[in-house]
Amino acid sequence: MVQTFGCQMNEHDSERLAGMLEADGYEPISDQTQADVIVLNTCCIRENADNKLYGALGNMKQLKDDNPDLQIMVGGCLAQKDRELIQQRAGHVDVVFGTHNVHRATALMADARRDGPITEIWTAADTDDPFPSALPARRQTDYAAWLTIQIGCDNSCAFCIVPAVRGAEISRPPEDIVSEARRLAAAGVTEITLLGQNVNSYGRDLAVAVRRSGGTGIRVRPAFADLLLAVGGVEGIRRVRFTSPHPKDMNTEVYQVMAGTPSVMPHLHFPLQSGSDNVLKAMHRGYTAARYLAKLSEARETIPDLAVTTDIIVGFPGETGEDFERTLEVAAHAEFDSAFTFVYSPRPGTEAADLTDRFCDPAEVKDRYSRLRTVIERSALQRHRAREGRVEEVVVEGPSKTDALRLTGRTGQNKLVHFPKPEGPLRPGSYATVRILEGRTQYLLGELVEVTARASHRTRLVVL
Ligand code: SAH
Ligand code: SF4
Ligand code: F3S
């Protein structure tokens, strides 16, 4: 069993881990008391992620006592960060591996069975292939796939641990990306999400490599916009998404490709972090609130019917009441469709974690957090209500989690719509149009209009 914490990068690595285990003859299982192997793919972005892992590991001690053949493996960002510490704190862990040696997981498992507990952490320099796309992957769905275009991060946001654990930015060659997109399409995938920490700074490192090798081409740098265009043009791919872009590197070209390529979905995840210029500066985000809003207006003017979501941190060290008011103003002005909102969590080793004398009062932060949620939910509801009466195409995800008589689909804007199940099967991966009847804060309610493309068993799409 593979349990995943953290972001889409980890989701994608977990698909590979599950695929590798399956290739070795293991079957997925959801009951951990019955498992022969448990893999925890971890995250360390916030402190409670650390606590969760060590809590989960503590609980597994008993499982291991009951079943000495059970193997417990810990991978992901927390493993990359804590290394040997994991086995020091939880001696019953068999294998610790990092984010650069996911492909070694099953071999390490065999070694540990023979030789005892192992910790093996690589850096990017240890590997020839930072994009192990040839590994078997057991994808969560047949119709949608992640596609990594870049790993690591060259920024230095003062709150963030990612550059320390994931290393420097490495962009994948464009031809490899397009050929993976073609292979996915040939396997029946119709939706691709391009993954990276700063997808729109894609290619910076490739340009440096070209310059160093003496290349003089005018367009030395393959830009993210070109990549979107190329993947969006792959036959069979009906939907392209990407996450996350960085506002400071966003440009007109990307908006134009989004506007001009029907398969690139009208959704922009645009992480604001704070609306105060003082805080943004202390965070080293590289933009002001005005600049962020100007980029957002340009995006909305260029891309018809764009949905915008964001990430915001409350209680960054030194954030004053005034600073927070700016965040509320910018959030209200930006009219987000939804937001991931976080309470600042100090990560040892990051710049902000040392600013202990500027930490905010937790009670004050809690109050700010709930005021921010109110502003976000207000615009979300307004924007969702504004969709009532529209007919939108969705990809069917499956039965609604809360109502067996309904199906859930996802719109181009990345919103969930629940609608009554039609008679007869409508499999996940099918496309249909639905009329939006009601907008709620987190989702939409609708009714089926027409099936536009039916997915068969293996989600090979037959376009009607
Ligand atoms: N590369 C992405 C972010 C990846 S982390 C980007 O730059 O947008 C996802 C989100 O976690 C961040 O956008 C931020 O809002 C939040 N986050 C990161 N570090 C955090 C911390 N120390 N405390 C609270 N939230 C944090
Ligand atoms: Fe972290 Fe900033 Fe890099 Fe995003 S851009 S991963 S927030 S350092
Ligand atoms: Fe977490 Fe690592 Fe992603 S720290 S958010 S799993 S890059």
Characterise the protein shown here.
The chain has 464 residues and is an alpha/beta fold. The chain folds into 4 domains: 2-126, Rossmann fold, CATH 3.40.50.12160; 139-265, 2-Layer Sandwich (Transcription Regulator spoIIAA), CATH 3.30.750.210; 268-386, 2-Layer Sandwich (Transcription Regulator spoIIAA), CATH 3.30.750.200; 391-453, OB fold (Dihydrolipoamide Acetyltransferase, E2P), CATH 2.40.50. The protein has helices at 8-23, 47-66, 77-82, 84-89, 105-115, 162-166, 174-186, 204-212, 224-232, 252-260, 277-283, 289-302, 321-334, 362-385, and strands at residues 2-4, 37-42, 71-76, 95-97, 118-120, 144-148, 150-151, 170-171, 191-195, 239-243, 267-269, 307-314, 338-343, 391-399, 406-411, 416-420, 431-439, 444-455, 461-463. The strands form 5 sheets. Strands 1-2-3-4-5 form a 5-stranded parallel β-sheet, sandwiched between helices. α9 packs parallel to α10 (252-260) and α13 (321-334) packs parallel to α14. The radius of gyration is 23 Å and the shape is globular. It starts with a strand and ends with a strand. Bound molecules: S-adenosyl-L-homocysteine (SAH), iron/sulfur cluster and FE3-S4 cluster. The site of iron/sulfur cluster has 9 residues, from α6. Iron/sulfur cluster binds next to α6.
